[in-house]
Write a structure and sequence with these properties.
Elements: H1 2-17, H2 25-32, H3 37-61, H4 63-83, H5 92-121
Helix pairs in contact: 1-3, 1-5, 2-3, 3-4, 3-5, 4-5
Amino acid sequence: MGLFFRWMFAFALLALTYNPTQWNYVRWSVDNYESRLSIAVLAGLLLAIGYIIYLRATIRSIGGFGMFLVLSVVAALLWVLYDLGLLQLDNPTVNVWLGILALSVVLGIGLSWSHVRRALSGQADMDDVDE
């Protein structure tokens, strides 16, 4: 269940930053930066903290090559769905949501990988060992 919550938070972080609707940080800050600059800066810093946490944990746990592999698996899955006719890629809005979904899977797995590896192998990371 922890993996699901970490993935959902990654999806929310990415969707809050940008999505094809009008309800996202990028569009809101562009429209309101003159009248609400302090709120735009605060919200941007909070989003940046979320990205730093996720990216740092992802890079430490699976690295750049692991990120590439997870993204490749998600891309291959989307390709299979497209080949089977279950997915149409002619709608730009759907494509943006698929991109958000793919990136959130990478970040969610990256943040959860230490827990998954420990559950599968029984081995603890050096960061997990009590002194």
